[in-house]
Design brief:
Largest sheet: 5 strands, mixed
Helix content: 10-25%
Shape: globular
Distance between the termini: 62 Å
Strand content: 35-45%
Strand order of the largest sheet: 3-2-10-11-12
Number of strands: 12
Radius of gyration: 19 Å
Number of domains: 1
């Protein structure tokens, strides 16, 4: 009885995973925070979009280094010319233990259709980057740059970055 239950559960789980993979769009995306590729500390990844004809649409996504998985139905409903917000939580190490940071990056949907995208996020709570960059706004203490084969978006720095 227990074996039958376990086998049935595993079978249903496999079908569920196969279905979820077939209905998602894979976007080649690498996220770095303060110069490091983040492996497992990015959670709660969402893409949100607001258009003149619709209310804000929020799409829950999956992320692992190199791949952003977005449900096809939600992604295709956003016009290519739209701005989207990529938001995610980052659980990083700090002197007092683990620290949660929330990031919200404004992108154009067409940028996500590039063959790959590298998103460099700089948390300005780190003194090294606070001396180099200005924050996006007064209430967001971070900044970002983007690299892709089609274009680059690099923030102006306060002083020269040492390589």
């Amino acid at each position: 009885m227990i074996k039958t239950f376990i086998i049935t559960t595993l079978f249903l789980l496999q079908i569920s995973v196969a279905n979820s993979q077939s209905t998602s769009t894979g976007i080649d995306l690498i996220i770095t925070i303060n110069g490091e590729v983040i492996v497992g500390d990015i959670m709660n990844v969402k893409i949100s979009s607001t258009s003149e004809t619709k209310m804000q649409e929020i799409i829950n996504c999956g992320y692992y280094p190199g791949k952003l998985s977005v449900p096809e139905s939600g992604f295709e409903s956003i016009p290519d010319s739209s701005e989207v917000n990529l938001s995610f939580d980052f659980y990083g190490d700090s002197l007092g233990g683990r620290k949660l940071s929330n990031f919200r990056i404004k992108l154009m949907k067409r940028w996500l259709k590039s063959s790959y995208l590298i998103l460099h996020v700089f948390d300005l709570n780190d003194k090294k980057y606070k001396r180099i960059f200005e924050p996006i706004s007064k209430d967001q203490n971070y900044t970002f740059s983007i690299t892709s084969p089609d274009y680059s978006f690099i923030r102006v720095t306060k002083k020269k970055i040492k390589q």
